[in-house]
Every structure is written in structure tokens, then in C-alpha cells.
Specification:
Blueprint lengths: L6 H15 L5 H20 L9 H13 L6 E5 L3 H12 L4 E6 L2 H9 L4 E4 L3 H4 L5 E4 L10 H10 L5 E5 L16 E5 H69 L4 H29 L3 H11 L5
Parallel strand pairs: 1-2, 1-4, 2-3, 4-5, 5-6
Amino acid sequence: MIIGEPQVAGQVKTAWQSASMANSLDTRLDRMFQHAFAGAKRVRTETQIGRDPVTLPFAALRLARQIFGPLEGRSALLVGAGEMISEFATHFNDSGIARMTIANRSIERAKALASQFEASSAPLIELDRLLPLHDLVIACTSSPEPIITRSMLNQALTARRRQPIFALDLSVPRNIDYKANELDDLFLYTVDDLHGIIEKNQEKRQASLRQAMNLIEVEVNAFDRWLRIHESSTTLKLLRQRAQIERDALLEQARAQIASGKDPDDVLKRFGHRLLNRLLHGPSARMRQAAEQSNEELLAAARFFFQDDEE
């Protein structure tokens, strides 16, 4: 549903690996997967379609990296325990953030969510203690008034010796006092800021979509071309197998006739004549049928396949 979302391609690759281990891929299906992976890689490397984030957690991570650089070793305080906080916890956990704390009015819900990510949990009354200990603060609760004040954040920055804090308020009405935006070393964003970023990035992805579709079409055509060649080689393989079966059967009869004392020259002539008749019987019958039905396309194809190269 999201243009440029990389997770689907990853899920497809996982499915292919599982099918491969289960020996449930034939040659054609496996080849189709390879072209799909090649197309996804080209889209990822040759277009801008996946470069700019279009989900709230990805946009937040991009902003946080602009402040801190790599997030490995950083800590995040997630205030709330609802669906949005759970989604952020999932993405933050995958981003390499070293430590997370879930703070919520209901400590039971905080503990339940924290247990999914090996995170810590705490009640809201401990916010004053928790704020200085975290680099990122994400707030999303149903509180009708701010639960993180300007004073709390100022004290936290002082305790951190002015090390910056990235704060994101996802709540409406706001959970973080907007006046805190005046504080130095505090980078405060709201959900409206993220939506503005996402909207611009979606426009960028739309602009890259045509280029991505062209790259995908190249891989589709390449697979289609391979499929036609594969199908023709299958037909040729079957034709060769049939010819070998006819040859071996007649050869066995010829050897028996020679062993019984018949003239080898006569046996070889008869062998060649019978083999020729058997191999050409089917094509000859179908060509006569095509002629009776005035199927010029089939007759032209027969002339193409059976005429001598020099002719």
C-alpha cells in the first residue's frame, strides 16, 4: 500500500528461501523469483523511490539520525502504550537503538508492551527521573493536557549537560508543552511536522514510480523471453527423446536381423527407411491437414523449420 515499501520484497525473498528448502520450486518458478529480485534491486539502487521515509516511524528515525547520526547506543523513552507507541517500539527496536523504556499511566500495560522488546517499564510519575536518561522521547497518550512540561525538559537538558534531546509529540491535544521548543538543544517535532515530511516524500516517490515501472518491465520482458526459450527447449527435448526411442527400437530389430544371418546392407537400408517414415509420419500428416485447411501460417512455419539452411 506504500510506494517504495521494502518489507514486501523481503517477505517474498523469505518465501522463496522456504520454498527452495522444501524443494517445491520448479525451474520456471525459481527463474521468475530471480527476475523479481533483480527488478527489486534495480528499483532500489537506480531510483529514488525508497530513499525518503513515508511512514511516521521511518520519518522520525530519519530526523533523529540528522541530530545524532547513527542511533546505535542511543536510548528512547516511549510515553504511552497504545498502538502508535507499539509501532514506534517495533521500528526503534529494529533500528539498533540500545535501550528503550515504556512509561504509561497503567504500569501493567507498560510492562506488557516492554516485554515484547526487552525494554524497561515505568509509571508516568517517574518522567522527571527518566527524561535526562534518554536521547529520544516519543509521546502519545490520551491526556487532554501536556504531561511533559517546559520545566521538566529544561531540567533534563541541564542534567544532561546540554546533550541534545529529540522529542516527538504524536498526541492531539499535545502531550509536550510546545513552549519547550524555545529551549536550546531540544529538537521538538509534532505529528504535523512528520505528516508534512511524509507528504513531500510521497510526491518524490510518485515521480520515481514511472522509472521504477520501466525497470520492472525490463525484467518482465527478460523473463518472458527466457520462458519462451525454455518452452521451446522443452519441446526440442521431447522431440529428441521420441526420436531416440524410435531409433533404439528399430536398431534393436536390425541387430537381431543381422544376427539371424540377413544381409547387413538390406537390413541397414530397411532400418533407414523405417526410421525416416516413423520420424516424418506425424509432421507429414499435420502438414497435409494444414494444406487442406489452408493454414498458410502453419505451412510457412513448417517450411522454416524443415528447409535446409543452404536453401
